[in-house]
From TrEMBL:
Subcellular location: Cytoplasm
Main location: cytoplasm
Coiled coil: 198-225
GO biological process per UniProt: pantothenate biosynthetic process
Reactions listed under catalytic activity: (R)-pantoate + beta-alanine + ATP = (R)-pantothenate + AMP + diphosphate + H(+)
Active site: H33
Name of protein: Pantothenate synthetase
Role, per record: Catalyzes the condensation of pantoate with beta-alanine in an ATP-dependent reaction via a pantoyl-adenylate intermediate.
Organism: Bathymodiolus azoricus thioautotrophic gill symbiont
Recorded family membership: Belongs to the pantothenate synthetase family.
Pathway named in the protein's UniProt entry: Cofactor biosynthesis; (R)-pantothenate biosynthesis; (R)-pantothenate from (R)-pantoate and beta-alanine: step 1/1
Originating gene: panC
Swiss-Prot/TrEMBL keywords: ATP-binding, Coiled coil, Cytoplasm, Ligase, Nucleotide-binding, Pantothenate biosynthesis
Subunit organization: Homodimer.
Amino acid sequence: MEIISNISEMKQWRDKGERIAFVPTMGGLHQGHLSLIDLAKKNADKVVVSIFVNPTQFAEHEDFGTYPRTMDADLVALEVSQTDLVFTPNVYDIYPDNAVLNQDEFTQDKGLFETLCGKTRPHFFYGVLQVVRRLFEIIHPDVAVFGQKDYQQLHIIKHFTSGVKIIGAPIVREHDGLAMSTRNQYLNADEHKIASKLHKILKQIEQGELELQSARERLQRYFELDYLELLDANTLKKITDNTSKIAILSAVYLNKVRLIDNIIFSKDNYV
Ligand code: PAF
């Protein structure tokens, strides 16, 4: 496994002409990330993983400073998972002139950036898109794999990047159903148990056992509710007669730890 930090070296490596699948990460790797790498391998000759904690997707009051940085363990996990190359750029090379994303391009689609997670984290998707586009520009992958846990992120990346095939990978869950996330490290054992209720409640909605409003009330027993919505999975807008897939999407806080989860299912199966 090669490790490259330098952008021109990265570009040179890329010139070899193989089909590249790319998995962008912020490190703090867990089984969920490793499942993205497995999927990437099936779609290309070589797999490139980046590790870069992207400052532009954190607001000032968020956890950029304390976000888990576990480079040594990450590199071991990547070696075991037979990653071909790890790209570990520094912030000055990613943002040489401190450029921020020009949001004018998205005026028409502002709604998509500022709904759901974007309501409480208005900076977030602009920051994600900025770094993903920059990484694509450096790595020129054929394919990139993103987790479906961040469903709105996946949706925005599919819509606002071009030239790279975007693949969404299924959510990987802990034994109790909690969606795997680097931020799960912030939870103690009791909190972890409570956190697993999020998925259980979403499941009850999917199975027609809980109406949306009752589910919101149920979530509020355990969490500070950010949102719980039932939307068209293809547009992230209201369900209509043309909806084929439904997305149940939620974000909650448990003692300041933000948890997100979703279930996507066919409208035909909705009772
Ligand atoms: O999902 C993540 O880990 C990040 O948002 C990403 C896509 C690596 C961009 O920093």
